[in-house]
What we know:
Blueprint: H1 3-16, H2 18-25, H3 29-33, E1 57-62, H4 76-85, E2 87-92, H5 99-109, E3 115-117, H6 123-131, H7 139-145, H8 147-155, H9 157-163, E4 173-177, E5 187-190, H10 192-197, H11 207-219, E6 231-233, H12 239-248, E7 256-259, E8 262-265, H13 270-284, H14 297-305, E9 309-314, E10 333-335, E11 348-349, E12 354-361, H15 368-376, H16 381-389, E13 393-395, E14 403-405, H17 413-417, E15 431-432, H18 434-437, H19 443-456, E16 460-461, H20 471-497, H21 505-514, H22 517-533
Helix pairs in contact: 1-5, 8-9, 13-20, 20-22
Amino acid sequence: xxxxxxxxxxxxxxxxxxxxxxxxxxxxxxxxxxxxxxxxxxxxxxxxxxxxxxxxxxxxxxxxxxxxxxxxxxxxxxxxxxxxxxxxxxxxxxxxxxxxxxxxxxxxxxxxxxxxxxxxxxxxxxxxxxxxxxxxxxxxxxxxxxxxxxxxxxxxxxxxxxxxxxxxxxxxxxxxxxxxxxxxxxxxxxxxxxxxxxxxxxxxxxxxxxxxxxxxxxxxxxxxxxxxxxxxxxxxxxxxxxxxxxxxxxxxxxxxxxxxxxxxxxxxxxxxxxxxxxxxxxxxxxxxxxxxxxxxxxxxxxxxxxxxxxxxxxxxxxxxxxxxxxxxxxxxxxxxxxxxxxxxxxxxxxxxxxxxxxxxxxxxxxxxxxxxxxxxxxxxxxxxxxxxxxxxxxxxxxxxxxxxxxxxxxxxxxxxxxxxxxxxxxxxxxxxxxxxxxxxxxxxxxxxxxxxxxxxxxxxxxxxxxxxxxxxxxxxxxxxxxxxxxxxxxxxxxxxxxxxxxxxxxxxxxxxxxxxxxxxxxxxxxxxxxxxxxx
Length: 535
């Protein structure tokens, strides 16, 4: 039996006894919950200034190690923090590919670290292991010893509502992304060279205008190679295209959405049928990449680099098209929010500013006050920069209007950053500040922030907030949602490629209802109502 199979057997065995063990661990509520922040301030602890502890302490940290990461014990972030705080760590960093399994085994066997960092905790983890007492409530600690994070919550009540679990406690801290280009799901671009070659200047504002443009791309030889090899519209597994095209039909994505306080499931709405009909037309007329359902982003990017793609979905043009220099990104046009015959409101999907479950303190930690002070630094302006960039950045002028990240000659900047901090390829507890991000001396960064702020954010709306479900609700959702999603995925593809007629729409909706749609909607409505009433 190989090591991976052995670990699975151990995990299954440990999970079998987890409930009993958890019951034992909660024999004393005060011990299990360890209402941090209520106890007398420990002796080896400074509530203000640095170091945090006078005598060095070493804690155990567990986190997900991405392939791009160097050894965590060699990272600049942790070395700088140890020098400043007197807090060191012994690291347990399973590879990201099997981290979830290792994390589950740690909880099930009660062999917990003191701290989870780049924790990858799911909302269900927080609810389950928080209520079992393995993760301690943080709100008391935050109130007394985390002034930076406390200030952030006071300025952003929606963030606080989104990290309070169903029992009223905060069990984990989030990554907060306050960056313009991250505020929307993504961007749809037009190949500017094709527009110039065909003498077209007007960017589509409706789905009908987009259709007409795609037809011109199909027949006009816009790449000027004399071949009929143009792909007017391409994407990967529809996910990117849906996030831009569905709002044109009045839907904020293909999942749950709150409309006027009521939860609805968009794939059974009439607007979704109109979207399917539109995509079906594009596919039938060969205006849409017939490999989009299965191709990877690398495969799509290869087509773009060969000059074959006209309209595509990506963070920036240079990820798909061959761009000689960063400034050339600007010649490729952003398609703003579209309208359609069934929707006259410009809409785009607004991302959540937070990624939950990045940091937690367990009930074996003897120094929760010192630990919360340690992590709180990352929610300050100085700590944010350290967590995001290490110390390898500098201001380019005395007025501090521009900064740049410095990496050794010949070394990819992100690969180098991955040796400094787990932020690369991960999600760690800190705030990424908009004002600082806007000052980066990077043309693509500046360009994306500008077009996002001007052309997308005025129309951005959130589909559904970050909510928590009870254990019972989550168990039912795991079953119902999985079945419904699988069916919707299959039927969407069949409708678009013509394997199923839209005359069967009513039957399709009826099938989804029989699969438990009403129960799924009620669970989400209850969770939304709890979120809405919080605080």
